[in-house]
User: Fold these one by one.
Assistant:
Number 1:
Amino acid sequence: MDHKRPILQLSHIGKTFEGGLKAIADLSLGIGEGEFVSLLGPSGCGKSTVLRMVAGLLQPTAGIVEWPGGRPELGFVFQEPTLMPWADALANVRLPLQLEHVRRDEADARAAQALARVGLAGFERAYPRALSGGMKMRVSIARAVAANPKLLLMDEPFAALDELTRQALNDDLLKLWAEDGLTVIFVTHSVFESTYLSSRIVVLTPRPGAIGADIAMPPPHGRDRGYRLSPEFADNARKVSDALRAAMERRP
């Protein structure tokens, strides 16, 4: 990991749910400003639980979540777009700005700009029922970035999409990350997606989740279709796949 200014520190985090299900055990992880970190692991290993504890949607039962420079503005993109079906795209993206009491004209302008940045200029008045799955996810991403977050949390946002749409959204996400200087924590179960997107991949073991590997990747600036087809990408994906397989063989 490059020595970047720390934005987040998880120290000896544990999470046990009611009924005794132990999801996370003694997990410590630091995230540096500007990193693109993927949490990679099989379903049920606690990736989403970690993300929700970072967001404050869940409280750890052990350990502490620390913000060395103060808690930054957060954006959260869920696996499902979670759009309001009765509101058009502009109104959906405007919602977090309304909650911050931004003036209506400014909120509309920022929401329209965010939609344009994800390729949806001209769809401001479209309702979710008229949008494809990929377009709905673009609206969800626009909503998350409209409030100018410093940290973007993403919980398997592209898992339900076809491969071409997924690749296009991967490229758009990297562009937003670079342009806005975002720090991103991205949950995925895809070796290839994590290899393509990340500056760092944290592999979790089967439940209770712990860190099985922490892999530094080449900086993802300028990645494109050529990189996806390159021997370098294949070698990196193989290294990540091997680390995931080793983590899967670990037992608490």
Number 2:
Amino acid sequence: MHKLVLGLFLGLFPWVIFASNDKASDALSHFFKSTESLSASFVQTNWDEQERAIDQSEGEFVLVKPDGFFWHYKSPFVQKIVAASNKVWFYDVDLEQVTIKSADKLMGFSPLLFLTGTLDLERDFLVEMDSVTDAVVWLRVTPKGESRGFEYIRVGLVHGQLWSMEFEDNFGRKTQLQFSDMKVNVAVDSALFVLTIPEGVDVFEE
């Protein structure tokens, strides 16, 4: 599940206006309504409970609403995570193994599925302004329910565009995602959301 630390939600508009009016949740609602697709490259860094950096990986992701998600770790290991039609496929290429999970079972536990926009933002999350550092506006999102897989998400926006995200799980482990080459509302190949499982790969469905 630690690889599912993907929460990536966005505010692609004049953020400071919303922030000054204490309308953080309205800003995220605006994103869900106005953003149909999104893609970017990322660098992911993980820290342990003692805040020591333990590993770093790179890759790319693509999001298409309402439920299309493609997350591809390219190095140092190769893994693909595909979400579509209420299911999530985890393909570990090196292990030659695919695990299939119901999106309903993961909802509320993963920042990844927060991006689908199917959750009730006001009911399920507390959305607050965190801080403003230089050109970065930081937003803090905390789940309200007891059954949750993360403590909070911090999203950093520069000029209204997603720049970075930080995430802490229930064990005090932190992850940072640094984004680049962001593309919004562009055409996306639907084939990305169909995982073709090679012959000989073990498949487990939960």
